[in-house]
Design a protein that fits this description.
By secondary structure, the protein is α+β, with helices and mostly antiparallel strands. It has helices spanning 16-22, 26-42, 49-64, 84-89, 111-121, 150-155, 170-175, 219-223, 302-311, 316-322, 326-329, and strands at 91-96, 99-104, 128-129, 134-139, 144-149, 211-212, 230-239, 245-255, 259-270, 274-285, 291-301, 335-343.
Length: 347
């Protein structure tokens, strides 16, 4: 009888045989496995670790030999979340003219989803990803749709070393190692770890595609104080870049009676190195069904932006705040890329 040596285990675990008896109980099995895992990592050295190891092995084997066993304990990283009803309840839809606009917002993805995305996309994931969040625009009569989702956004991150950035202290580190860093020019990471995606939305390959255009989004019309019929903001992912800055990718959508604007923005700040803003704007004219998509990329060195903020008369604390606000920074960053496209799903 082992229960005298197992003060942390529930009374149901009196001996090894009892483990086998309760192994048919899925919920109890999950609880016991979690408990044994905790004890193996936390138990005092005086306790007989062989006993814990034996119980742990039996429980783990019991789970592994039941491939169809439902695992839905809240501590399970592979818990089937979100369920269909959760997806439905998290989705908000607004119809305007012949278009339907929808947004879905759910909590941060669990480790099971993150691991699956890491394997599929081939790069480590940001600290916070919202893998089930999505913003969609659909032209109902034709079925044409454009959506913004996290997996596709991360898949558009550069997976090579062509656009590597090095953190601000890399140069200091190199200078302390005389003769050993001649060939080291970048921090070695096999992907763009700033997550500076070039994603502009997803369209079915068989659907109508955007074509280059000279048209521009009518900003003056959008500046009018027309009533906002629908507004939402959806986060897709965020990273603190190993405590060296921030990289945020989010989508905002605003709907008026005759038009709408979607803004998908990447804001990346690598402290003491560089700042980037990459915007995708989608404008829909509800009267003509025309859709215009504009992509713009802005970039400037951290030092130059900080100098511009200082010359504007801001105090040090105000500069720190400004460096976190892409709306303040956007007018200070030079435009390095711009393109416009358009289509009309009614055509």
């Amino acid at each position: 009888m082992y229960h005298e040596k197992l003060p942390y285990l529930p009374p149901i675990l009196f001996n090894i045989e009892d483990c086998l008896k309760v192994s048919e109980d899925v919920e109890a099995l999950n609880i016991l496995l979690c408990t044994c895992t905790y004890i193996l990592g936390k138990a005092p050295p005086a306790l007989d670790s062989d006993i814990f190891t034996s119980i742990f092995s039996i429980l783990k084997t019991s789970r592994r030999t039941r491939p169809n066993m439902q695992r839905n304990h809240i501590s399970d990283p592979n818990e089937p979340f979100p369920k269909p009803q959760a997806l439905a309840s998290a989705t908000t839809t607004h119809s305007q003219s012949r278009f339907r606009i929808s947004t879905r917002k759910l909590p941060i993805s669990k480790s099971g989803t993150i691991d699956a995305l890491t394997e599929k996309i081939g790069i480590p994931m940001p600290e916070m990803i919202f893998g089930d969040n999505v913003v969609g625009i659909e032209h109902v009569p034709s079925g044409w749709s454009l959506n913004f989702n996290t997996p596709d956004a991360l898949d558009a991150v550069d997976k090579t070393d062509r656009h590597m950035l090095k953190v601000a202290y890399a140069r200091d580190w190199e200078s302390t190692r005389e003769g050993t860093t001649q060939g080291i020019k970048e921090v070695v990471k096999p992907y763009d770890w700033s997550y500076s995606t070039t994603y502009t939305g997803s369209i079915e390959a068989s659907a109508m595609q955007f074509a280059p255009t000279d048209k521009v989004i009518p900003i003056e019309l959008l500046k009018r104080r027309d009533p906002i019929l629908f507004f939402d903001e959806v986060m897709l992912y965020e990273s603190e870049l190993d405590d060296n800055g921030i990289s945020i990718f989010s989508v905002k959508v605003r709907v008026h009676e005759k038009r709408m604007l979607l803004l998908c923005r990447l804001f990346m700040r690598l402290d003491n190195v560089v700042l980037r803003i990459r915007d995708t704007r989608v404008y829909v004219d509800f009267e003509t069904d025309e859709v215009i998509r504009e992509y713009s990329a802005q970039e400037e060195t951290y030092e130059k932006v900080k100098r511009k903020l200082l010359m504007s008369g801001r105090l040090p604390d105000d500069i720190t705040i400004a460096l976190r606000d892409p709306n303040v920074l956007a007018p200070l960053l030079p435009l390095v890329e711009h393109r416009a496209e358009a289509l009309n799903p009614s055509a």
